[in-house]
Amino acid sequence: MLARMSFGWPVELGSRQLAVVVVAAVVVLVVIGSGGEHVEVPVPSAKKNELLLKLEVASINPVDWKIQKGMLRPFIPRKLPFIPVTDVAGVVAEVGPGVNGFQAGDQVVAMLNSFYGGRLAEYAVASESLTVKRPPEVSAVEGSGLPSAAGTALQALRTIGAKFDGTDKPPLNVLITAASGGVGLYAVQLAKLAGLHVTATCGARNVELVKSLGADEVLDYRTPEGASLQSPSGKKYDGVVHCTVGVSWSIFEPVLASTGKVIDLTPSFTAILKSVLHKVTFSKKRLVPLLVSPNKADLEFLVGLLKDSKMKTLIDSRFPLSEASKAWERSIEGHATGKIIVEMEG
């Protein structure tokens, strides 16, 4: 089966111009001159330990457009054309050799391989090891938000020391920056499930939303109090889930407890150097860049929380596949409250 590209919008990758092109069955990045091109792309097939999925929805993450802009070179993309987006939900259409536990018709949530390209498309191939069944209580839209955003929040909190078995006594004090974003909204909910005391930062328009998810203290980051990151109750933070950029170590250091950690989700080169310095000097207070390790167990745990109504996915906006460019632009703007969803048509 082949799909024909129907339109594109230009982006820059070094000295080359690319088009992110919407097609009947796929969105793909292709090298172009000054305009789009028509290219036919085959629907993939499932190989060993893989599943072919007919997708219902996909969710956009900032890393998707950062790859598109060449910000992760030379690691990604490894080759062109490169198809963006990894977080999806859909139905199993075909089971590859060696797959056990899945069959055609199963509803699933999956995280695709970002190194070789995702699949903002009607069909995608997913590894069995990063695919989990989606129960009827969890919609495709809710499930698609989990793999990168909720998975990152979960691993960041565990790095701080959060446990989800009720054994955190006394509770840790945590700060979550940019708490109304895709990762932040999950982080607030997960932190409260772990019994932590949560201070959060966000814009004024989202303060009540973040409070409604359980945050104990919420700071408007545009105010002097918010900029200082100081807890209104005077608590020092055992850990920070840092979901934004532009905050220096000199701001974090005075608000940390004696062994506090800042888990940086998007570390700059300067932040990485600072983390190395902390490690080699055996600093008690540390900046720790987070290297996320996606795994099936975490995804099953998160889907279970949605099933049991212990957590929810908040949606910023929804777009059909034919308007994927608008979803892309919405993510690049950087002010989404929750997840940006692309729904497949047909």
From TrEMBL:
It comes from the Eukaryota. Transmembrane segments: none annotated. Residues 35-342 form the Enoyl reductase (ER) domain. SUPFAM superfamilies: GroES-like, NAD(P)-binding Rossmann-fold domains. This is Enoyl reductase (ER) domain-containing protein. The lineage of its organism: Eukaryota, Viridiplantae, Streptophyta, Embryophyta, Tracheophyta. Gene3D superfamilies: Medium-chain alcohol dehydrogenases, catalytic domain, NAD(P)-binding Rossmann-like Domain. It comes from Urochloa decumbens. SMART domains: PKS_ER (SM00829). InterPro entries: ADH-like_N, Chloroplast_QOR, ER, GroES-like_sf, NAD(P)-bd_dom_sf.
